[in-house]
């Protein structure tokens, strides 16, 4: 006895395309599209279509191929979101690199909505190691979007884009001062209410590319906020969608920055192989001559990746190149790269040298890491805890204890799991020295008696 159809969306599209009575012919068209567009040998048949209609989702690029075949048959754009598969593979929502610009808009919009829901449903999404590497490959090798002009909905102008950039600056200030846990829900609501309608509006190709660029930056910020509060699966999905939006904008340097963020996330999760590959992909993807500030930021990510992989020589080479690039930096770089200062590079070097077991050398950066602008409250807390850890591992317990109390005071004003992780690491490093009064005072406040 046949099972009932559960995917009404796909059934309706097949009927509209006159494939409702020729499932095998439809499957052959999907196979042909896979061979033509991706060089794949697929063996879908009528039974495959039967199960798609009953809740089974084909592996990628199956949904993309189905949408391609239906689009050609119906002479209109059919998006993956219309196929009825959404929500049936919840773990992968936002995890795939959308094939087309309309799919990118719908996938990002769905992710923003989930981020904005109270109760934090996005936190259940797991981090998927292979997804970041696949995304980097797709970003690098998928063909560029020839035009993203759109002629439906309200007219979007350059003034709308400038408004979004002003809001980006405000959210960035909130994140740096208070941590990712403070403003991500507000940012997600803004993306849903203000940015998504603009992406679905009407715009020329130049305005559209500027619009997608700022949407990518805002989505990347949502990813970094998620990373900061240790929602790693949510962060990964936001970074992937930011990467797709940046590809639509044509801004390769920001896409490279997002790949570097994925590399940094891999470092945090102690995935050295993935970190090294992603950092290399970021540098390769930025082109031959990125501006100095961008180059420094990407090379810094590569240095930390090599350090967590235990490669001292590769770390020294990358950090030296990053220092040289930062010395050449001026005011000509993109605004999003302006945050990366000598103090940030010194923090990367110090953390890397600790990973490499060289705390005394790490302490040579102790003054540079604290040379921060007043608004960088989270980075100041991170660097204070990091410096205290370096002192502790080098055997300078009194100096470590003094800075530990300072780091704890800073951490209490910031909603950041990264900062809390640094405090926890510092506490475990200082735990053998509890008899020292200042260490005992720190440990009592940090972990209890």
TrEMBL record:
This is Transcriptional regulator. InterPro entries: TPR-like_helical_dom_sf. It comes from Acrocarpospora macrocephala. Gene3D superfamilies: Tetratricopeptide repeat domain.
């Amino acid at each position: 006895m046949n099972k009932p159809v559960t995917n009404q969306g796909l059934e309706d599209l097949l009927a509209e395309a006159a494939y409702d009575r020729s499932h095998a012919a439809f499957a052959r068209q999907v196979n042909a599209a896979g061979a033509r567009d991706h060089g794949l040998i697929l063996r879908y048949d009528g039974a495959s279509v039967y199960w798609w209609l009953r809740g089974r989702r084909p592996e990628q690029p199956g949904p993309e191929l189905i949408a391609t075949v239906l689009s050609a048959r119906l002479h209109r754009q059919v998006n993956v979101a219309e196929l009825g598969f959404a929500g049936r593979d919840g773990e992968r929502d936002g995890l795939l690199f959308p094939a087309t610009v309309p799919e990118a808009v719908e996938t990002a919009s769905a992710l923003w909505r989930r981020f904005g829901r109270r109760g934090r449903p996005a936190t259940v999404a797991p981090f998927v190691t292979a997804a970041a590497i696949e995304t980097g490959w797709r970003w690098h090798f998928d063909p560029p979007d020839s035009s993203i002009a759109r002629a439906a909905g309200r007219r979007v102008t350059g003034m709308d884009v400038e408004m979004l950039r002003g809001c980006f600056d405000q959210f960035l200030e909130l994140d740096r001062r208070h941590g990712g846990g403070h403003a991500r829900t507000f940012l997600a609501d803004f993306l849903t209410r203000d940015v998504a309608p603009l992406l679905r509006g009407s715009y020329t190709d130049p305005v559209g590319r500027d619009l997608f660029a700022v949407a990518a930056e805002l989505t990347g910020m949502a990813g970094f906020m998620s990373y900061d509060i240790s929602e790693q699966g949510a962060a990964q999905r936001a970074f992937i969608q930011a990467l797709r939006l940046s590809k639509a904008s044509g801004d390769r340097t920001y896409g490279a920055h997002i790949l570097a963020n994925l590399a940094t996330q891999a470092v945090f999760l102690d995935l050295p192989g993935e970190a090294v590959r992603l950092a290399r992909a970021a540098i390769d993807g930025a082109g031959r001559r990125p501006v100095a500030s961008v180059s420094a930021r990407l090379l810094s990510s590569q240095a930390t990746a090599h350090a967590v992989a235990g490669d001292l020589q590769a770390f020294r080479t990358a950090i030296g190149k990053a220092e040289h690039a930062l010395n050449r930096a001026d005011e000509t770089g993109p605004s999003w790269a302006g945050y990366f200062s000598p103090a940030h590079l010194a923090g990367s070097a110090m953390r890397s040298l600790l990973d490499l077991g060289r705390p005394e050398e790490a302490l040579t950066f102790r003054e540079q890491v604290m040379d921060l602008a007043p608004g960088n409250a989270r980075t100041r807390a991170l660097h204070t805890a990091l410096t205290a850890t370096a002192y502790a591992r080098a055997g300078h317990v009194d100096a470590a204890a003094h800075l530990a109390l300072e780091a704890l005071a800073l951490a209490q004003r910031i909603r950041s799991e990264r900062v809390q992780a640094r405090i926890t690491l510092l506490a475990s490093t200082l735990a053998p020295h509890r008899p020292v009064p200042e260490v005992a005072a720190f440990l009592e406040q940090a972990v209890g008696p």
